[in-house]
Amino acid sequence: MALSFPLRIGFRYFFSRRRDRFLSVVTWISLLGMAVGITALIVVMSVMNGFEAELRNRVLSLVPHGFIDGPERRLSEWPALMETVVNEKGVRGVSPYTGTAAMLVRGDRLRGIQLYGIDPETEGSVSDIEQQLVEGRYLAEPRFEILLGDILARRLQLTVGDRVTLVLPTVTVTPLGLFPQEKSLEVAGIFSAGADIDGNTAFVHLKVGQRLLRLGDAVNGLRVEFDDLFSAPEALARLAARLPEGVETQSWAQTQGSLFQAVKMEKRMVRLLLFFIVIIAAFNIISILTMAVSQRRSAIAVLRTMGATPTTIVRIFIVYGLLTAVLGIGLGAVIGVPVAMNVSELIAFLEASLGMKVFNPDVYFISAVPSVFRWLDFVVIVGAALVLSVLATLYPAWQSARIEPAEALRYD
């Protein structure tokens, strides 16, 4: 009974505003502001989650979770080490590799690249390079062939079957002087991961890489794939303690981590900026309650004379203010959740209706707006908005409890 009385009076104050037109307008503006803020937060956070997932799936489809490099980037006893690593808990696959910075030249066009020598038999356990081929064939035989990203091939105007000159950062000594090491390679295939890696990475057969880098039977290191992407840094750190002296480890968080950290920073900043909409709506709740308390001084005085305690008056106006917040949050959730779950379809419908493209596939790596809705984000957004709204009601509600009945009724 003690709880139902503040609820009844709070609901009555909220829904009966025939004389308080201005207060009613301000209340609806605050309610809509809260709804817009919640909707924007839910949708934008889902889209940012989608971009993060796309980035992770595209970039790390070709980039292994970790590297194990030999001393001075030369690993001779790699078959035995590979056998040891592959039997470690949580390791999904291991593959040897060679790697170096190089340059591709065709005519007057040249591009700096990262060149990897890979073993076709084991590479599938650490990357999806074979599945990402869009033209040509995989590196099945140790021939002087190369796989290029589609952006790199387009910039050099290369297609399958063309030849390109590879320039390595080593020199050949001749009687005429020092010359950079060069090798003519045939383009065997073109891959597309839909990420920046398509413009700066190329692959050759492992044995070709060993010959080009003059490693003999040695390799630069091992590429490692783990069952859990995010456990790679800790797993590699544990693994490093059992590796031979001089062997170094490096995880994707070190090679690609800055990219993902930038995305996370953007998510935080976007969340903070959009949350200001909710903060403004909460300040409107303070304004609404302050005006409501001022207009209902006489009613508050009557309630006090009838036995209502200050605590009861506080509860009445907390209910009054929270109704605005709850209705706004509820409306925002009802709109935001379906939109967040169907952003791609809605954007595709708008593109078809308006005859335009949000992301031109010729310019961007993606052609649709990705979205990943997470219930944890939803709970955090709604919970933070409710807490903020409760805090916004406290001061005006406390002010209402300080009204003295005799003072309020003196001139009524």
Can you offer a commentary on this structure?
Helix 1 packs across helix 11, helix 2 runs antiparallel to helix 9 (257-295) and helix 2 crosses helix 11. Strand 6 and strand 7 (177-191) form a beta hairpin. With 412 residues, this protein is α+β, with helices and mostly antiparallel strands. The protein starts with a helix and ends with a helix. A 6-stranded mixed barrel has the order 2-3-8-5-7-6. The chain contains 14 helices and 10 strands.
Task: Name the features.
alpha+beta, single chain, 412 residues, 52% helix
Helix-strand blueprint:
Blueprint: H1 4-15, H2 21-59, E1 66-69, H3 78-86, E2 91-106, E3 109-118, H4 120-123, E4 133-136, E5 145-149, H5 150-155, E6 163-174, E7 177-191, E8 201-205, H6 206-212, E9 221-226, H7 232-240, E10 248-251, H8 252-255, H9 257-295, H10 297-305, H11 310-341, H12 343-354, H13 375-401, H14 405-409
Parallel strand pairs: 3-8, 5-7
Antiparallel strand pairs: 1-9, 1-10, 2-3, 2-6, 2-9, 4-7, 5-8, 6-7
Short description:
By secondary structure, the chain is α+β, with helices and mostly antiparallel strands. The protein is 52% helix and 20% strand. It has a six-stranded mixed barrel.
Largest pleated sheet: 6 strands, mixed, barrel
What's the overall average pLDDT, rounded?
81
How much strand content do the residues show? 15-25%
List how many beta strands DSSP finds.
10
The Rg value, from CA coordinates, equals 32 Å
Runs in which pLDDT lies below 50 for 5 or more consecutive residues are none
Trace the largest sheet across and list its strands: 2-3-8-5-7-6
How large is the count of helical segments?
14
Distance between the termini: 30 Å
